[in-house]
Amino acid sequence: MRGKMVVVKDLWWRYKDGQNWVLRGVDLEVGEREVVGVIGPNGAGKTTLCLAMAGLIPWAVTGEMRGSVYIAGVDTRNVALREIVRRVGLLFQKPETQFVAMSVLDEVAFGLENFAYAYEEMWNRIRWALKVVGLSGYEEKHPLALSSGQKQRLALASILGLRPDVLVLDEPLSNLDGPTQEEVFLAIHNLKETLGTVTVIVEHNTEELVRLADRIVLLNDGKIVRTNTPQRFFQGVESLAANDVWIPQVTELGYRLSESGLWEEELPVTLEAAQDMMGSLVAGKSKPMPTLPEPQFLNQTHQMPRDSIIEIRQLSYTYPDGTDALCDINLIINRGEYVALLGQNGSGKTTLAKHFLGLLGPTSGQITVDGVNTREVSVKELASKVGFVFQNPDHQLFCKTVEEEVAYGLKNLGLSPEEVERRVHEILTAVEILGLRGVTVSSLHGAARQKIALASVLAMDPDILIVDEPSACQEKRLSDLLMRLLRDLNASGKSIILASHNMRLVAENATRVVVLDRGRVVLDAPTRVAFAEAEQMEKAGLKPPQITQLAQRLADRGFPLNVSTVSEAFNWVTQANRELFLKEVT
Amino acid sequence: MPAYCACGDEAGSAVLGGATRIRSFLFYFSPDSPLQRTNSLTKMVMVVCLGAVAFMIENIYASLVLLALVCVGLAVARIPGVFLKRIVVAMSGLLLIAALAHAFFSQVPGRITFFTLPWGAYFTERTLLFILTFYSRFLTASFISLIFLCTTREADVVVALRFLRLPFVICFAAAFILRLISTLIDDWWSLVEAQRARGMVFTGSLMNRLKRLSELAFPLLANMFTKIGEVDLALQARGFTVQPVHRTQVRHLRWNIYDYILLASTSTVFIVVAVARYVYGYLSFL
Lengths: 586, 286
What we know:
The complex is a heterodimer.
Chain A: E1 4-15, E2 23-31, E3 35-39, H1 46-53, H2 56-59, E4 63-71, E5 74-75, H3 81-87, E6 88-91, H4 104-114, H5 119-132, H6 148-160, E7 166-170, H7 178-195, E8 198-202, H8 206-212, E9 215-220, E10 223-228, H9 230-233, H10 237-242, H11 249-259, H12 271-282, H13 298-301, E11 308-318, E12 324-334, E13 338-343, H14 349-356, E14 364-369, E15 372-373, H15 379-383, E16 386-389, H16 402-412, H17 417-430, H18 446-458, E17 464-468, H19 476-491, E18 495-499, H20 503-509, E19 512-517, E20 520-526, H21 527-532, H22 534-539, H23 546-553, H24 566-585
Parallel strand pairs in A: 3-8, 3-9, 6-7, 7-8, 13-18, 13-19, 16-17, 17-18
Antiparallel strand pairs in A: 1-2, 1-4, 4-5, 9-10, 11-12, 11-14, 14-15, 19-20
Chain B: E1 22-23, E2 28-29, H1 40-56, H2 60-76, H3 81-103, E3 113-116, E4 122-124, H4 125-151, H5 154-163, H6 168-197, H7 206-237, H8 257-278
Helix pairs in contact in B: 1-4, 1-8, 2-4, 3-4, 5-6, 6-7
């Protein structure tokens, strides 16, 4: 146990009234200055493990515990919780749940006040923490008035301010935009280097995790099923995919190349390693790659229908607190389009999306949906045409049973009981929750609630579907289901508007990208064209998918800049390789 | 040293993250409101003193003068009229109903009795004056409270309570309840938004509206209880305990000339009115 800051020894945990063990013999050791990433599907026990490492299990959560957790050599059961949390900072999965104060400043100060930090020191730490997460200047804002990404950053700042010896972060990157992710990474790295902070990060975003983690642990069904350095961890792609793990795009590319016999060495897990792989693979002969005709990408062959379904003219919106959220937006969305709304946290994506359904009315300008001015019709009328899937299912579910929840909107549309019954059955089958039909909504958690929220909107069969930064996108199995449903809907002629930070999903699904920056549209282009605009994207605080970043790094070798999916990159590499081979032979 | 303070004079737009107004209990208010220059304790004292004055004054003319002054105060506080309009209209209407209802149980002596009610109450020429006075006094007190609620943040009230050296548990409980109210209001709007997004309308008969609103009660309460459990964990995860341990605080009550002026003037008014009313018998109804 020497030199180990966190030791989890044969840990078993079962919640009070719970039938099953959530953790089943977990063994984990985290050494000083080590950063350990924990990944795994929903319900694997990741959050429970976090609670145990922070001492809240068994002190503040009731249940049955076997085994031990040691922090700096001390069994958490033998010291007061206050002494444990002085050393361990826990970031909860849902930021709203950890807010206890009524301003950003008070929120960050709360922990520092509890541990009686001196006034000067408190101020230094508050300023530092807010700067790290990019919230300087927001001190007097109410936490609930922040955007979802800003809330996440505030929750993180309130933990960072305490500068604990051990940071336990439960999905800290979800809902964060690229630059903020970078800042958070840098802060964790600095804490590690300067204070020797140990970090345990639960995260779905493996592409970012491999950059930071010294070791990755895969948790499934309450057990650790795999642990290794990032480089070694991702070598077994098939078994990871079976565990619903997001495989980094560059690793996936390497895997496909190795499957086709083009690559025989270790799979790359970082951009740098992938760059080396590509160099040695196709351009290792120190000559530029041949210029090849651009492959026929799916998006480019997709013929856009021309009739507009949403028209926005000079739209501006100011919130009651005086924040100018949207400024002079002009936009046309055509019927059957699949549009992604991108932008940094607080750039105005949700505000704009709410205008499509009339939930917000323009301060100036106008919006027409299917030829109707949103000012002239009720939300009820618009709701029959526009479906809105909110980010947080907790804000969307209010009926007693799953069936009632899904039927709610259908009844409001005035459909016959037979039609309501038919649609409820159909949609519950589609989202794979038919078995939960009569179950009480409040008794369900996680993925099931997200599926119900989605089903309740899809059941209304809207012409336009808005999906606002769905948390479902973080979990692979759910994300796959959601994207498949959206693709099917789009193929049947529905217009899809997706707001997401997951660039990979956007690249693989959306045909057009609209980038917002501080309430203005700064880029509006087909997806691949938009991602190829590196400078514009960077200005708007966005990072293209990892595979596009790789393409950009290899641009001087002839790699096309507008590659945005693994399949495209693979096709192009194999084609280029064949060309090179033929050239050398002849 | 940063100049953050409870309702601080420098807590202006520069620290509002793009916003130009500050969220109070009820509304967003302008940071350049003159009342923003005073601390929350001064405003609490003002509410107590002027509220007491409003109830002490029974003379209709004096009461109307005070009401007029308070209305000027509402304008000076720069509370956005568009937000105030609805609440003022609703408050005035409710108070008028209350005053009329009260009159039906009053026995105000006068020279002429218009009619007597079966339960002994009667209407005289002075009953109307009584209704007007009742209405004016309550409206004045309500408007004074409104000024406070529109220009004070929940967090600042807690700082004032701490300044008064109240036990930490009481200050924290007050803060927690105030925060819970904010959360409940936010959850309420989220649920209403979600209902509207699925075609629900809050129009129609009163019964229909009440039925619609009652549908939200269960999820709202369920959410609240879940959140209380989650916040409890979050509190403990950041070292909070109800045990008496040493704590520091980041906000302190700041005093400036405006606080002294407001405190002196409101307490003087209170003393003068109290003496006039109870020592010399002025400002009474009859």
